[in-house]
Amino acid sequence: MQKSDLEKTIPITPPTRWQRAKKYILRLFLILFLLFFILAAVGFFYVKSFESRINKGNAANASKFLTPREKDLKELNILLVGIDARTERERGRADTIIVLSLKPKEKKAILISIPRDMRVEVPGYGMTKINHSFAYGEMPLLVKTVSSFLDMDIHHYAVADFNGFVKIVDILGGVNIYVEKRLYDPVHNIFINPGWHHMDGETALKYVRFRRDPKGDFGRIERQQKFFRAIFKKLARASSIWKIPSLADSVAEHLETDMSVSQMVSLARTYLSLKEDDIQMVLLPGYTARIGGVSYVLPEEDKISEIMYWVREKGELPEFLKEDLEDISVTVLNGCGKRGWATRVSSYMKSILNVNVTSIGDAENDDFIGTVIQFKPGNREAASAVKNWLGFGYLEEKEDLNTDLLIILGKDSISKLEGRIS
User: Does domain 320-417 have CATH number 3.90.120.10?
Assistant: First the structure.
């Protein structure tokens, strides 16, 4: 058979190496695209399945009492609740109540622990223990109660039971915690000696739930806060990142929240980027008392109001929680001319700071613009603590004072303190 003239004039050349490479690259791209599409589809359905498992129960009802968070909001407040339900049918009680207040831009976080026996106003039920609100109306009522008690917007919530707690600790490989004193409770099978312990989930649960010590619920919350610091260190390690899929599966079985997966990922990214010193913890102060034969924790309202003022306005805890001012003698003088102002300020200082206000009076004149805080040598730290509590004032060291601190209230104190002092 003879070739045509056209075949004779146009030679057939084999594909070049570059052309063959382009063909393989195109095929590889198509395969990778299909693989990505399949993984994205699987991931999408996995995320939706995960969300359907955690956005259950009261998510829709509780959202009515949650405050929608605007994009430019400086803080994010999440109500974290641990319940003692051991089975799905058991409603359980709110054993642990914590508000996580995050300041993403400032890279700060505050964990506010509320004693479960604290006596508060529960809407529709009167004065009773705060954890009763969960028993009466589950998360919708607990969100409403906590928000009202703290005068704080709650944007999200998360509830976990004890079985989930145990599994999460075990998946992370346990946590290292130093136990200061022997924990002994034969009724609940708790026997933990002092010293360092590498705790698995069951042991950690016993540690945070132990209450048979002189501090009662307050001691238990202190141990919970210590555990949170230990678990934070564990989560912050790179090796823990690979355990997130296992954590997600375990969490889904024991977690209820209104948050989406993307919101939780964003929250985890923000929280784990914090340093340990950027996370502050506070136990709301109160004292035990019996009313009608029932034991309560009665809130120290002035101190709680002051703590929440600092959390809302400054994104940190007040300095008076760190400095012991009980043995400091203080004289307060009215230098602004506002009638009875020195008495009101000193009374509030005594209730919040536990300072010993020895005398109250008027300054030499009433036209002080700025507040002056004079202190004896050696009392600078106490003076600084008072200044930090006030949020204003000028420090001045004086040797001839007949008191440890002399505070002359200027006109600036009126605008700064009027809203804080009832």
Answer: no
